[in-house]
């Protein structure tokens, strides 16, 4: 079991919920941090406490490890961003090859503020759900970006934080499998029924969870779930 405490960047979505479970499995002291940046899918802020409470209730082995939840106002990011996640515009690809759901600097700011919280709370580990395998091409989700952020944070704060990215090299199907390995069907169902990933902020019920079913985030989540439930090993166990 790792020591030093951990801060999890927790949005209330599938990836960050899986990362939270991974962190609770690894560390004795865990706190969460979320960000209000004027996102159009701000319903994720509403589901965060619901997911946290369910983890405390349904996973007694983790309940005692899960500490404070911090929510930071980063509305200034929404004010300076012209993206489909911070403006009421259609989701589309841009001329630079990036989707307009990309919020420039978002993860850089998130990591910096998470490190500030970690510094204040005496935590040495920062956990985030960024991923290079199943993602929308965001440059601030890359492994190189996270390594650079760890170096910059440690130099700038004269500290020795360790940045963990447990989802970096796995796809959405494997993310579902990881949640199942960590918390069984109880955790899978919690992610399906309560977490939020949809860019549109919709909560329509589907087999794979809640969302519009059409945006890129919903499509990734749905396709991953289909591959996950088709796993012959899971079917033989009759666990899903």
UniProtKB/TrEMBL annotation:
Question: What InterPro entries does its record include?
Answer: QueC (IPR018317), Rossmann-like_a/b/a_fold (IPR014729)
> Which residues does ATP bind?
10-20
Domain of life the protein comes from: Bacteria
Keyword Nucleotide-binding recorded: yes
By its UniProt entry, which Pfam families does this protein fall under?
A: QueC (PF06508)
Q: Would I find Nucleotide-binding among this entry's keywords? A: yes
**This protein's pathway:** Purine metabolism; 7-cyano-7-deazaguanine biosynthesis
**One GO MF term attached to the UniProt entry:** ligase activity
- Quote the PANTHER family the UniProt record gives: 7-CYANO-7-DEAZAGUANINE SYNTHASE (PTHR42914:SF1)
Record's function text: Catalyzes the ATP-dependent conversion of 7-carboxy-7-deazaguanine (CDG) to 7-cyano-7-deazaguanine (preQ(0)).
Q: What is this protein called in UniProt?
A: 7-cyano-7-deazaguanine synthase
Q: Which species expresses this protein natively?
A: Chelativorans salis
**Which taxonomic lineage is given here?**
Bacteria, Pseudomonadati, Pseudomonadota, Alphaproteobacteria, Hyphomicrobiales
Source gene? Answer: queC
């Amino acid at each position: 079991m790792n020591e030093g405490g951990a801060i999890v960047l927790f949005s209330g979505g599938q990836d960050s919920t899986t990362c939270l479970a991974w962190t609770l499995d690894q560390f004795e002291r865990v706190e969460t941090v979320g960000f209000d940046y004027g996102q159009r899918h701000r319903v994720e802020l509403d589901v965060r406490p619901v997911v946290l409470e369910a983890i405390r209730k349904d996973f007694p082995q983790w309940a005692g490890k899960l500490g404070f939840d911090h929510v930071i106002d980063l509305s200034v990011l929404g004010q300076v961003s012209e993206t489909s996640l911070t403006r009421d515009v259609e989701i589309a690809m841009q001329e630079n090859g990036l989707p307009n759901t990309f919020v420039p600097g978002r993860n850089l700011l998130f990591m910096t503020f998470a490190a500030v919280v970690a510094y204040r709370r005496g935590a040495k580990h920062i956990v985030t759900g960024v991923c290079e395998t199943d993602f929308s091409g965001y440059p601030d989700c890359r492994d190189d970006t996270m390594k650079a952020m760890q170096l910059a944070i440690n130099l700038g704060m004269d500290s020795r934080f360790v940045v963990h990215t447990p989802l970096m090299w796995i796809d959405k199907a494997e993310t579902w499998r990881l949640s199942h390995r960590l918390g069984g069907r109880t955790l899978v169902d919690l992610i399906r029924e309560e977490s939020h990933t949809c860019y549109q902020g919709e909560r329509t019920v589907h087999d794979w969870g809640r969302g519009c079913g059409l945006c890129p985030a919903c499509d990734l989540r749905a396709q991953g779930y289909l591959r996950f439930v088709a796993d012959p090993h899971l079917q033989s166990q009759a666990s899903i």
